[in-house]
Amino acid sequence: MVQTKTEISRRKFLKSSSGVALFIGISGILPQLISCKDPNKIKEQLAQQPLTAWVKLSEDGLITIYNPAAEMGQGSMTSLPLIFAEEMDADWSMVKVEFSPQESEIYGSPGWAPGSKLMFTVGSRTTNSYYNVMRKAGAQARYVLMSSAAKHLEVPIEELTTSNSHVLHGRTNQKINYGALIPFLEMPESLPDFSEAELKNPKDFKLIGKDIPRTEIPAKVNGSAMFAIDIRLPEMVYGVLERGNLHGSKPKLTNETEILAMDGVVRIIPLDYAIGVVAKTLEQALSAKKSLKIDWSESKASGHNSQEIYSTYEKIASQKEKGKVIFEIGDVAKAKRTAAKTYAVDYKNDYVYHAQMEPLNAVVQVAEDGGSAEVWVGSQQGMDTKLGVPKILGIAPENVNVHLQYLGGGFGRRSMNDFVEECAYLAKEMTPLPVKLIWTREDDVTYGAFRPLSLQRLTASTDYKGNITSFSHAVVGDGGNLVASAVANDHYDIPNQFAEWREASNGIRLKHWRAVGHGPNKFAIECMLDEIARDQGLDPLDLRRKLMAKAPRALATLEKVAELSNWSTPSDNGRAKGMAFVEHGSLGTGVCEISVDRSTGIIKVHHFWIALDAGVVVQPDNVKAQMEGGIIMGMSSVLKEQITIVNGRVQQSNYHDYNLLRMQDVPDSIETVILESAEVPEGVGETATPMVACAIANAFLRLTGKPLRHLPFSPERVLQALNS
Amino acid sequence: MVRFQLDINNSKHTVEVAEGTSLLWVLREHLGLTGTKYSCGIGQCGACMVHIDNEPMRACLLQVDNYADGQKIKTIEGLSKNGDHPVQKAWIEAQAPQCGYCQTGQIMQAVALLETNPNPTREEIKSHMNGILCRCGTYLRIIKAIELASKTPTSIEN
Fold this sequence. Notes:
The complex is a heterodimer. Helices cover 30% and strands 24% of the residues of chain A. By secondary structure, chain A is of the alpha+beta class. Chain B folds into two domains: 2-76, Roll (Ubiquitin-like (UB roll)); 86-150, DNA polymerase, domain 1. Chain B starts with a strand and ends in an 8-residue tail after the last helix. Chain A: Pfam families: MoCoBD_1, MoCoBD_2.
């Protein structure tokens, strides 16, 4: 019976010229081979069974591997397929990579929460959460090829090996390319559920850990890489929204007739918080947007002044009543009572904006019968892989097809899919015309969702030997985890620790911003350590050595970077070095060398050195690129970037008043050493950025004796610190 | 609506748009040359860098009316047939892009530099490239790519 079934399947493969997809089930589910010619058949199978379909083979040996993660420059388009190809023993030169369908039941990672399956490219978790998934699936694909080859060659599978897209039989000296096996492919009755021990020994890795060029870079240098903003469809119309600069404000349009009479304007679509205009061309839509006359209501944010709010935050920090406890070990109060010395310092952080280079946008088309929709988008995906579109359109999720495009930067902004929802609203009104919604840069800044403004009040105590006996950390700000994450010091041997969050809500839109709470909180923690070290007459390196005594992996990064940066040799020429440790999945210690122009207050960063332990590193050069980019983005935010709010209104609107770091401000070098490790891969996208504020401030403290405690370190603030 | 004839990448293109329409929208939305990017619209970021008569210019600031008179417009799509201009090759060798959105503008600006100054110093590179923003922070690799390209003897051809 089984035989017959297989025969039928086999004929189907033979007829197919576009190869076969290997649908390899998560344990216990019968694997399938399905002709790629028949997308309906594939969809049917996918709807029926939670299968994992990762690879497509062609008879010419071409291997297409599907990437389930967003690609925003972090390299998922290479790293995840590379892990699969490693275990499959695929010839990498014959591998093509495509985005997988956005179907979380099939391609979601269980790495987020037990039992969950999410497609969600956030938190620098992609490689970590897909590492075992991809390895196992690759090994299973290899097993299918080997078992089919064993039947075809009539030899025991145990005698077969694989190498570079070939199944080899040593005894008879036979060698078959994976592609040539397609007519003979048969699914074994069951697939081994490979345990880690049955996978490749990392010593035998041929792809993982090597410098393999990123697959999507050629398309990014010839202009063919498709971002959602590049999508053009027949009869497409353009949507823009005016959202104002007071978050939460409600609009009332007062010149609708005038707008509707403008060239090319086809529809005005009011939303709760914005007025939408749809026009035949982008320039017509933008021109109409400029002409809108809108009365805006006041909102919760009215009256909020970002630069005056700190005095309120200080009062909140001083209140007796504790906030929400985030982390607690030992007894801080007791430690303080017996302390030889106590310290209390406030650190402050202004709002910062994502400034991803591709402004938010999406393209949505609802089918004429209203029963299905197509979505083109650059998204970091989400808890809902269909990005909120089904609910808005009243269409079942399986009939909403999301075509993921490259992201022109994410940094946390693109895991909030408000822009996709907006486009769905417009597309619903415009059915069946496709709508391209574009946020102008001004929209992107003024209606941004910022890293929250926050105040960190740190207190610490030391004993008579100068040991830190307690450390407590109160975060005041809006947004829960957005401000209160990264307050636990797991790698520092401090027996009594306490961290809490005190809420202060201002009605400003907020969002994860690369490294989230790590930015402000590591700034506070690492600066506090250096302030204590200075007061105690300790070298910051020695202080951290002592604190990391029970955290050997963290300590190794510290020792390595000390060596790399020549820490013990003082800088000359009016320069000084500062260090900071950060854990964000991976562990890293960074050292920078700076100088300061005492007349202008401009800080110059000359060098940055990083020692990193990220577990197994899939793409070493790409990890270095993440360190470089993370440092530059960190420098940009620390030295330049600031969103200010006056009476609830965002004051900045574009790159002329929201300055980013430019090429003339880069350090001479950013040098990364990756420590050898066989541990699971950990994220690297957000480890470098939070090092920057504290490393610079710590260098500044050593250079000038003055602390910098308020981000950004604008020239005015630097001068103020110098003159204090 | 006015008809404009443009000379882009050595071929003639006709568009019918309102007077004063920005060259960026014409290239991207009317002609589908989407390798030239929109990011700020006010000449601050350089993502829309094109060459006009061999000069690097920001398409977002230009009105199509003024460039329909035989001026030779070159976009990233016209830089090389197979993405193998020496500067593009150097970009791949340095693995410069991350998200990639600004990189076509960076490349057009770099090509313009090397066409007039085949062996720039690091300071000249920084100064010439300063107007092009990159949020991913790839600046050091861009410098490396330009230095690699400047060592390629054929870099000013193509």
